[in-house]
Amino acid sequence: MQATANNLNDDQVAPILTVIVPAFNEEEVLPIFHRRLVDALSQITSNWEVLYIDDGSSDKTVDIIKLLQATHSTISLAKLTRNFGKEAAVSAGLKLARGQAVVVIDADLQDPPELIPEMMTVWQQDGVDMVNMRRRTREGETWFKKATAHAFYRVINQLSDVEIPADVGDFRLISRRAVDALNQLPETNRFMKGLFAWVGYKQVTVEYDRQPRAAGNTKWHYLKLWNFALEGITGFSVVPLKIATYAGFISAAGAFIYGLVFFIKTLIFGDPVHGFPTLIVTILILGGLQLMATGILGEYLGRLFIESKQRPLYLLEEYSPAKLSSEPIQLERSKTASRV
Hints:
- The protein has helices spanning about 30-40, 60-70, 85-95, 115-125, 145-160, 175-180, 190-200, 220-235, 240-270, 275-310; strands spanning about 15-25, 50-55, 75-80, 100-105, 130-140, 170-175, 205-210, 315-320, 340.
- It is an alpha/beta fold.
- It has two domains: about 15-215 and about 310-340, Spore Coat Polysaccharide Biosynthesis Protein SpsA, Chain A; about 240-310.
- Strands 8-3-2-1-4-6-5-7-9 form a nine-stranded mixed sheet, sandwiched between helices.
- Helix 1 links the parallel strand 1 (about 15-25) and strand 2.
- The longest helix has about 35 residues, at about 275-310.
- Mean pLDDT is about 80; it is low at about 1-5 and about 325-335.
């Protein structure tokens, strides 16, 4: 079934904060993460909800969440029927989140839950709709991954009409108003970092130091990251299509001029045409440009094909919501992050 927003009974009050935690095979780190998360949230209020989204895990992730549910009434579990991907899991969380503010955080502890009180303080004091968390340092990552991530944000911001905050992942706080706006977006191919920026509400950025993964292995390998980058670029820019058009025009103009030179040399000077290797190289270059243009066009056509099917973004196998209560908010400011 498809999720519906604001699953509240008549006697329930919306929580002040919902923390969305997408999880895929995180059995090793989940108990540690939950303990640290609860310690951080206890500094804010007792009126919070932790919404775990199981994205088709094949290990004991769901069993661990259910054990946590048995001892914590503030935990919700949404289990997807299979692995739909992180973007779909985050989208499911946004649909089911009931808080006045919503925080998205991964379970691998690279993003410290201890920063959530700071994010809540900034949200309340600055009156913004989104608190973005920018990675000042990225411990535990290779130089290549850091360099490519840095380059990706620069490239997509050059190509896109929407300014996407550089070096900001999914870790952020979103207001109820912004969540409702995001839930109205119908597309199946979702690049959430771009959609967070697209809604256009007032945002502020806080810097922090990203930690290495506490346990388990990363699910984001280089091929998957490459495909993710393509999703982002083709989802927020048509510039690649224009580049293919310009490249075709330039190569056609160059070929015409090149052919004209040969024609004049042969007709006027009687100079026979030489350079069979040059001809082969030219054909290969033009063939490569054509394949590149076809590939770019195929990326966009593929997106249109998927969107035309109008399939749901995800399917829920199980949803067990937390038991909610109401309590006035009390904030205590964290000192581990700095605003920019």
